[in-house]
Amino acid sequence: MSERWTFLTHHAHVLISLSADPDMKIDQLATKLGVTSRYTVNILNDLTEGGYLTREKHGRRNHYFINRSAELRHETSAHKTIGELIDSLGSVGGAR
Fold first, then answer.
1. Where are the alpha helices (DSSP H) in the chain?
2. Is the pLDDT of residue 87 over 90?
């Protein structure tokens, strides 16, 4: 059995990470996820275009705001929100 799969997607891990640190740099996110910076940018763009994230420039850095009331996308969990997902997982700031 493979130990490589996880229950949450990279998209979910980005949201969870940003909930703990909304000023996290792209390179920090990429390292935490174990993916490239470019892939992380693509995830951030997906989340922004999907209405799950907004970003605000603070100097040369981004500050991210999570739309906690946005509903999850899969039909089995569409009645749940991003905020509920994050809250159900508790504090995961340093976890990997």
1. 10-20, 26-33, 37-49, 82-89
2. yes
The pLDDT tens digits of the residues spanning 61-80 come to 999 999 999 999 888 888 99
| Alpha-carbon span 87 to 62, nearest angstrom | 23
Q: Give φ, ψ of 55 to 5 degrees.
A: -125, 145
Contacts of 48 by beta carbon, 8 Å cutoff, 6+ apart: 54, 55
The pair of three-digit structure tokens given for residue 25, joined into one six-digit string = 């740099």
Q: Look up residue 87 and give its DSSP letter.
A: H
Contact 82, 68 (CB under 8 A): yes
Residues facing residue 65 across a β-bridge: 54
* pTM given for the model: 0.85
What gap in Å lies between CA 14 and CA 61, rounded to an integer? 17
